[in-house]
Write a structure and sequence with these properties.
Layout lengths: L2 H9 L9 E3 L22 E3 L19 E3 L10 H6 L5 E3 L8 H4 L10 E3 L11 H8 L5 E2 L12 H38 L2 E6 L8 E6 L4 E5 L8 E4 L3
Parallel strand pairs: 1-2, 2-3, 3-4, 4-5, 5-6, 7-9
Antiparallel strand pairs: 7-8, 9-10
Length: 241
Amino acid sequence: MDMKKRITLELRSRNPAEIAELVVDNSRSADGEVEGLTDEFTELEFLSMVNVGLSSLAKLPSLPKLRKLELSDNNLSGSLETLSEKCPNLTYLNLSGNKIKELSNVEALQNLKSLQSLDLFNCEITSLEDYRESVFELLPQVTYLDGFDQEDNEAPDSEAEDEDEDGEDGAGPTGDYDDEDDEEEDEDGSEGGEVGLSFQVNRADQVGNSGFSLQADPRPAQIQVCFPSHNAPVLQAENSL
């Protein structure tokens, strides 16, 4: 699908001035130029044109609010000066997988004063000696190059941070339920210990005041009532818990 038609479909009859994000990845540019994008996209903040066959940015319209631009896997080798003219507030620029070979190709980005993150991964320029040091020196406003700063600290990933917060919120209840189960088991165990003490009651054989004696029995919960007279029945009651 060509880029112009793709943009029309993405609009879905909406006014271009209402669009804040636009993705036209894998559409095709017939002549290597930006097509179908006009300066009516005054509120556009994020634009992704990955693998669309771009070789020039000369026809990029003015996008004053654009902050993030994805241009990876195209055929760009120059004309980057257009970015500072048309997108002066860019903070993130991905040019990975393009035909950028020399430092002179990115020199035009010096005028992007708000640029914080630049990606040139898989471009020939990355094979230059002292590539990282040279780019940081040429573009002092850039904090992260290919995802890392000058001290090799990785750039923060906002999506991963959101996932971490979700994980923390969901972890609490599981532990609480386990604690409750343990408490219930402890209570059951303590009750069982109290009932486990059994007593054997023996009636004395017509001696004295016919008193009773209580004797502790360590066996499982069991109560025996014994009548030792010759013809009396023997009654046994068992209580197993």
